[in-house]
Amino acid sequence: MLLSISRAGIAGSAQVLAIRLWPSSAYSRLTIESSTPLKYKQFALSHPDRVVIDIENIQLNQTLKNAGKLVRQDDPNIKNVRVGQFNAQVVRVVLELKQNVSPRLFTLAPVAGFHNRLVLDLYPEKQAQEDDPLLALLKDYNQGDLDRSQPNAAQLPGKAGKDRPVVIMIDPGHGGEDSGAIGKNKTMEKDIVLKIGRYLKAMIDKQPNMRAYMTRNEDVFIPLQVRVAKARKQRADLFVSIHADAFTSRSARGSSVFALSTRGATSAAARYLAQTQNESDLIGGVSKSGDRYLDHTMFDMVQSVTINDGLQFGKEVLSRMGKINHLHKSSVDQAGFAVLKAPDIPSILVETAFISNLAEERKLRTARFQQQVAEAILGGIKAWVASKK
Ligand SMILES: [Zn+2]
Question: The whole model's pTM is what?
Fold first, then answer.
């Protein structure tokens, strides 16, 4: 009896299951998750500036009513969210704005535990930090034209560390909708790797002749290709992606380091991992036109020199990780991670530890281990630079 009622309920109209807000300086995102795809219309109103979404064939529920409570005071774009039953069939969502934005609305099909999602991204018309190319890159990405903002060569002329500073792009994995792996005690990969990334940036910037940038320094989702594009745009010499591993068995543990492979993964585990990390875009949410940019266009350009450099750099980091944690594997693994596919920047991906392992989850949460990981990566960078002199 109950079953038939709930079935009829689902078939009758879409249910809004969750609403989330992800404010950041790059863009603010509103996600409306629903049982079935939503039918919607979007338009703008001015005086004051508002973005309006009319959702058809749904009824106001508590989740929708609570949307206004999600707005954070420090959201750079959204002042307020109001939701009301506009007429018998239509629920109206009104976003009051703090500044001029260009809205981008798209849907995402169910993936990895998420139901149907309607996503509204609000991009500020004016970028706060003029020296950060992220907003311009996201704009080009959304127009399917990421190549336009790319320099011909990634690295700056001159010898890194000798004639000019070594430029390192730090890439904390995941962010925003995409939490990455989650530990038994609810530790989120995206939070841990951001902390490690910040420690690493602070350490690098204290070094003479080194400069660090981050692909993200907030809890925001950045598509994988934009991360790579940002590394090229800022003329990075090295790219370090930071992650925490997870596996179905809680006994799996240890640190690993990966470099890119053009010939596919060197082991089944590496293949599995590359696949799950590459799914990040689907989970974090990229719209269709962004997907137009296929991985392999850049993949084809990858030179073996860059891969060998990545392997060598990876070895330096791995040996230092071995001093602070058990090693999952004693050599640098190779796999086709999308985030490692900068054609001309030696890139590695560090799986710091298994967040799915109880002891390592505990370890990952400590500032001490986070700093030790940052130190291990810094040591690897220094050794790699020294070897190039
Ligand atoms: Zn990850």
Answer: 0.83
